[in-house]
Amino acid sequence: MKTSFQLGKIMGIPIKLHITFLLILPFFAWSFAITPPRFGFSDQDLPLRYVLSMAAAVSLFTCVVLHELGHSYIAKKHGTNIRNITLFLFGGVSSLEEIPKNPRTELKMAMAGPGVSFFIGLILTIIYSFFKPAGESFTDYVFLSPINDPYLRLVWMMAILNIVLGIFNLLPAFPMDGGRVLRAWLAERMSYIKATREAAGIGKMFAILMGIFGLFYNFWFMLIAFFIYIGASEEEKSTEINLILEGVKIKDIMSKEVQTVTSGMSVEDLVEYIFRFKHMGYPVVDDGQLKGMVTFTDVQKVPKGERKVVKVSQVMNKKIVSLQEDDDAVNAFRLMTVNNIGRIIVRKGEKISGIVSRTDLLRAVQVLGE
Question: For a 10 Å CB count at each end of the chain, is N or C smaller?
């Protein structure tokens, strides 16, 4: 199932919407519509109330994209490629091919996002100050009265929300921006992997405290805490795998006995093949030519009653992802992550010499990490 949809590209970076975003955008618009003045438009007549509320929701998530583009710009400037920026339920995520291990570079990247948010907040505050009614002070609105002009109120809301976004992201809860700033600071004083563990540990503790707070006060804090905890755990695991596998060659951990199938084989015969050889994926080879890859996941898509007539050629993945046996094992891990696959064909020149699976990588990490 496709879980995200590409809107377009900015700076050559694909901007995607996750399906969870399609749920949260109407919710935010509805929240703005029922919230009283200062941070909502419940005082406005229909349909203007919902037009302004949707504009506020779209503007907020546009600012989230700009926040992520701040990270991406610095990353690209220092030679790190960005696969995409995806808008999720709780904001945006820049998908980097590799987190730079230079603490100063990571510090710049981490600060770039909040810096963009603070800059947007400052610009919108200046615009508000320029157009606000005569005699109305800046502090009056912050602490006391609402802004009567709904369009000016929208500008002020976005100014405040961007400042809040910048501050919230600087909390030292890894993998948020503040957590990355913390890791960069720690990495100047200890090994990178230890710095990651320390920052992830602090992030998990912060998530637990936020979850307890949310249990008694607000359900949304519990959800945010859950995503922070999972994010910290995944980042810690990913960093450890990358560091442990550096310098390890694929030929040292790959499976050298490769069973292949032909494109004309029926899916039913392939199932028997899977039971016989106990592998979950097979290169498809015809007359010595590699045609694709077929896995048990592909088999599951075919109803049992049709497996006798459906051929491997109809279900296999024709996109061939392969590496040379002298490549670093960490490249296999990155390719698996990028392409969301569980195994990669290994070649020596043009000849298939092995296959490396996610299980092979994790086994190597367990052995080498002890």
Answer: N
DSSP string over 323-339: EETTSBHHHHHHHHHHH
Q: Is 98 marked active-site? A: no
Superfamily of domain 250-368: CBS-domain (3.10.580.10)
In order along its 370 residues, the chain shows pLDDT tens digits of: 566 778 788 888 888 877 777 778 888 899 899 998 878 899 999 899 999 999 999 998 889 889 988 988 998 888 877 777 777 655 666 666 666 778 888 899 999 999 999 999 999 989 988 887 766 655 555 545 567 888 988 998 999 999 999 998 898 888 788 998 999 999 999 988 889 889 999 999 999 999 999 888 877 788 788 878 888 888 788 888 888 888 889 999 998 888 899 999 999 999 998 888 888 889 999 988 899 999 998 999 899 889 999 999 999 988 888 999 999 888 888 888 777 788 999 998 888 999 998 888 888 888 887 5
Q: Given the residues 68, 198, 235, 236, select the one marked as catalytic.
A: 68
Where are the strands (E) in 257-350, listed by range?
281-286, 289-295, 322-324, 343-348
